[in-house]
Amino acid sequence: MANSNTAVKVALVTGGNGGIGFAIAKQLAEQGIRVIITGRDVEKLKHAVNELKQQELNVEGVLLDVTSEQQCQNLIDDIDVNYGCLDILINNAGIAIDQWQSGLTIAKDVVEQTMTTNVYGPLSLMQAALPIMKRQKYGRIVNISSELASFNTMEMGMTLAYRMSKAALNSMTKILALELADYPNIKINAAAPGWVKTALGGEDAPLSPEQGADTPVWLATLDADGPNGGFFRERNPYPW
Ligand SMILES: NC(=O)c1ccc[n+]([C@@H]2O[C@H](COP(=O)([O-])OP(=O)(O)OC[C@H]3O[C@@H](n4cnc5c(N)ncnc54)[C@H](OP(=O)(O)O)[C@@H]3O)[C@@H](O)[C@H]2O)c1
């Protein structure tokens, strides 16, 4: 089986057709990892794959809407059939559709849409991927969270749906990592990329996508003695 430490590693990066996900995919591929990137927008996906292939990087693009549990399962099954392994899963796809809106009046469907994308999508993918990682006794999962998930930042209100979703993503990170205690070389961590200039982060953000990708890529390529079940920013533990 082509897995773990010697063969070419296989990584899945959701939302890899732009923003931070694209930068993560590029940095992983530059390390010789075969990277599957996903997105919903077919033209954006084609463009991203072409750009990486022009740099002779080992990538492919697959359409995926993470809100469909069936699509998530089918994609993981296809990866298993085609490559016989899945070493790295980056749950990067995410939306922030209630930025700086008040939680006092937020529509429930906005909360629901946010949770479905930012929480249930990653859960579906982790539940589908973990049997492969358990079989391999190797895996790295990185959940792209946010500083805004931290209870240390909750003294300011607003953005309830997004922050609630990322706090839930952090909970899943910790809980699943604990439940996999018998598999010490499967590591599940959450990363806060910082405020990054992307479609989601906006033009005023100080960090580039390449800078935002640094901690996720570090967590995706941790050695066996690396941390597990943690929340990190700039490669350092960040308060829950
Ligand atoms: N930018 C920041 O400052 C910042 C800060 C903290 C955390 N983050 C987190 O970093 C991650 C990446 O964000 P970004 O800033 O790079 O945003 P972005 O440029 O808007 O990219 C978001 C990506 O998610 C994909 N996506 C959204 N909904 C999806 C769905 N239902 N199914 C599949 N893919 C979906 C998009 O694909 P399509 O384009 O094809 O729809 C796109 O590739 C997010 O989880 C975000 O919460 C960002």
Characterise the protein shown here.
- This protein is α/β, with parallel strands linked by helices.
- The chain has one domain: NAD(P)-binding Rossmann-like Domain (Rossmann fold, 3-Layer(aba) Sandwich).
- About 40% of the residues lie in helices and about 15% in strands.
- It is built from 6 helices and 8 strands, in the order E-H-E-H-E-H-E-H-E-H-E-H-E-E.
- It has an 8-stranded mixed sheet, sandwiched between helices.
- Helix 1 packs across helix 6 (about 210-220).
- About 45% of the residues are buried.
- The model is unreliable at about 1-5 (pLDDT under 50).
- The structure holds NADP nicotinamide-adenine-dinucleotide phosphate.
- NADP nicotinamide-adenine-dinucleotide phosphate (NAP) binds next to helix 1.
- The site of NADP nicotinamide-adenine-dinucleotide phosphate has 31 residues, from helix 1.
- This is SDR family oxidoreductase.
- Belongs to the short-chain dehydrogenases/reductases (SDR) family.
- Pfam families: adh_short.
- Keywords: NADP, Oxidoreductase.
- It comes from Thalassotalea psychrophila.
